Amino acid sequence: MKIIRAENSLSLIGNLVFALFGFANIFILARTFGEDEFGEWVLYLSGMALLEMIRKGITSTPLVRFLSGSGTVEEERSIVGSAWFLSVLVTIAGIMLIYSGLLLFPDPIHNKGFDLFFIWYPLLSVLLLPLNTALSVLQARRQFGRILNLRAVNMGSFFVFLVINYFWLHWSITAVVIAHLGSHLLASLYSIVKGWDGIRFIRYTTKARLLEQLHFGKFSLVTLIGSNLLKSSDTIIIGIMMTGADVAYYSIPLKLIEVIEIPLRSLVQVAFPAMSKASRQDKPEEVRKIFYRYTGLATLLFIPMAILLFFLAKPLTLLLGGAAYVGSFTIFQIFLIYSLLLPMDRFSGVTLDAINRPALNTVKVLCMAFVNIVGDILVIRYFGSLEGVAICTILNSAAGVIVGNLFLRHDLGTNMLRIFPEGIRYIRESVLHFLKK
Fold first, then answer.
1. The domain containing residue 345 runs over which residues?
2. From CA 200, how far away is CA 133, in angstroms rounded?
3. Distance (Å, whole) CA 254 – CA 389
4. Rounded distance, CA 116 to CA 33, Å?
5. Nearest residue to 197 (alpha-carbon basis) of 112, 132, 127
6. Helix 358-382 vs helix 342-354: angle between axes, to the nearest 10 degrees?
7. Computed from CA positions of residues 30, 33, 35, 40, in that sequence, does the dihedral angle turn out positive or negative?
């Protein structure tokens, strides 16, 4: 129990550092560039997030799932090496796809402000290979202190550049993207020097491991594409049907909602390898216990957090985006309602992956993506409302909770009534442990 609490703390600190740098970056960039250039940056990040989710689905999620319960050194080498091999193949395919799109549709890409993504992402995808693999290996081994180090190198170096650029350099948005690439290169080199990336194990790739990871990955890929579409689709659809200025306006509350996602992301990173290990050891009761405790804990934490942030929405929006974006605080308040559904939605999906039922998680996420995308298009077409787009997020999350928990009840025998009692019990145990120190 003491180890689990330490892992929770390190994971939370790591995600706090990551989020704080992210907020600071948005704070600086929103004041460095105009709405159109800032909108191009948001589109670049959204496109990057979408394709990185594709790579994560095929390689990272299977890597964490299978490495968590590995029993021998030979098995670990084979799992990591096969993940590396898959990553290289997926990266090559992605680069070919991106440049083909740039050659075939240059005018639409330029007119809609996607130039930065199509020009620079292919290089970024290569630079990210060691970093992404290292983060997955460290998560599977639950070495969250090392993940914190990598994140600090990556985000810290980019933040330093943004500060220097804001006060002294005044370089273009293209220079910012190049610096973004440089920060990821620095973190990848750091992971290689430390030996965390596992590239030396690529020679241990086996056909059996490749097929095993591909079978799992084909479902987690679709799941993660759908999950990313739930976030990126709002931005992309707004960019296509509205303007770059609207994208920038919507991005401020979208960034703010990450505040409440920080503890959830931290808990998921700890719970997933733990549930995967219990599942591979055929301990369904242990999987259920972890699911109940973490879902209950997160939901109970989110309720007071959401209430507090609801009343602080306007000053927080003003602080992050400045006076030009302060009116978007109502969008942030809508997101806070959606956040109350996040723990049950997120942990139901993670648990389905952990018990080796990724196909069911895929169905769940596709249902959510359908609700979100159709809702966004209808709301923008008939009302032109960014608040309506945010409301669609509540609807898709509710769909995820319903579908995910139906699947878990059937495959794992979960009882949703146990979530809050187990969450309260876990909080009480943690408080008593703290008081005994």
1. 2-436
2. 12
3. 11
4. 15
5. 132
6. 150
7. negative
Could you read off the pLDDT of 325-372 as tens digits, one per residue?
A: 888 888 899 999 988 999 999 999 999 988 988 889 889 988 998 888
Q: How far is residue 210 from each of residues 64, 74, 218, 314, measured CA to CA in Å?
A: 14, 15, 12, 50
Are 396 and 375 within 8 A, CB to CB?
A: yes
- Residue of 173, 185, 262, 205 lying closest to 63 (CA atoms): 205
pLDDT number for residue 203: 92
Pairwise CA distance, residues 162 & 181, whole Å: 13
Listed in sequence order, the DSSP H helices in 173-206 are 173-194
| Of 26-40, 77-91, 194-208, 342-356, minimum mean pLDDT range | 26-40
Angle, CA 84 vertex, CA 83 and CA 87 arms, to 5°: 85
Q: How many CB atoms lie within 10 A of CB 82?
A: 27
CA distance 263 to 332: 18
Give the integer Cα–Cα distance in Å for 392 and 389.
5
Length of the chain: 437
- CA 432, 436, 437: angle at the middle one, nearest 5? 125
The CA distances from residue 167 to 32, 36, 42, 174, in Å, are: 9, 21, 22, 17
Q: Hey, what are 112's tokens?
A: 């809609």
Pick from 355, 210, 277: nearest CA to 68: 277
Task: Of 229, 238, 261, 232, give the one whose Cα is nearest residue 338.
Answer: 261
> What b-and-e string marks burial along 104-120, b requiring 16 or more CB atoms within 10 Å of the CB?
eeeeebeeebbbbbbbb
Mean pLDDT of 220-240: 76
CA distance 214 to 22: 32
Q: Residue type for 198, please? A: G
CA distance 118 to 57: 21
Q: What is the pLDDT of residue 384?
A: 83
* Mean pLDDT computed over 11-30: 79
Question: How many domains, the chain?
Answer: 1
- Interacting residues of 154 by C-beta distance below 8 A, sequence separation 6+: 131, 183, 184, 186, 187
